[in-house]
Design goal:
This protein is an alpha+beta fold and 148 residues long. It has a single domain, classed as Protein Transport Mog1p, Chain A, CATH 3.40.1000. The chain is built from 3 helices and 10 strands, in the order H-E-E-E-E-E-H-E-E-E-E-H-E.
Length: 148
């Protein structure tokens, strides 16, 4: 009976731990004088570098790059997205911390990019991906951004 209890207890612990999500965060002091915290859920092989532009990796392969822009640049990207025939707007959305546009730029190698405005700041960001729509969306879903 003790052995059965021990096996059952071990199985429960393994089950509970296997669903854990870990994160990696960096805070960047950017040229707009804002401090921006980026957090990445690192489960499923995701990683982020501390450099700028920062690399976003899945299973040690770079899948996206990120860099900071000003709010003025965010507004220029917004105008470009709305007026360029090579651009397809995929999503225009927001959450508590950001407003963002997700678009496809149609070239020989299509780009799937997020243009992000961090709320209550003077800072925006670009997360660029030229692998696929699904790759870009999956990476973005693992990220969070906040002015601190």
């Amino acid at each position: 009976m003790k052995k059965l209890f021990s096996i059952l207890f071990s199985a429960i612990i393994i089950f509970l731990l296997s669903g854990c999500t870990t994160t990696k965060s960096y805070t960047f002091k950017v040229t707009t004088n804002d401090n921006i915290k980026i957090t990445l859920k690192t489960n499923n092989g995701y990683d982020i570098s501390s450099d700028v532009p920062f690399e976003l990796k899945k299973n040690k392969e770079i899948v996206s790059y990120g860099f900071f822009i000003t709010i003025e640049s965010y507004n220029e990207y917004q105008d470009l997205i709305n007026n360029d025939d090579k651009v397809e707007l995929i999503e225009n959305n927001s959450n508590d911390d950001i407003d963002y546009l997700f678009y496809k730029y149609d070239t020989d190698i299509p780009e799937y990019n997020y243009v992000i405005k961090i709320k209550n700041s003077n800072t925006g960001m670009i997360i660029a991906n030229n692998i696929s729509l699904d790759s870009a969306k999956d990476m973005f879903e693992h990220l969070s951004f906040k002015k601190i």
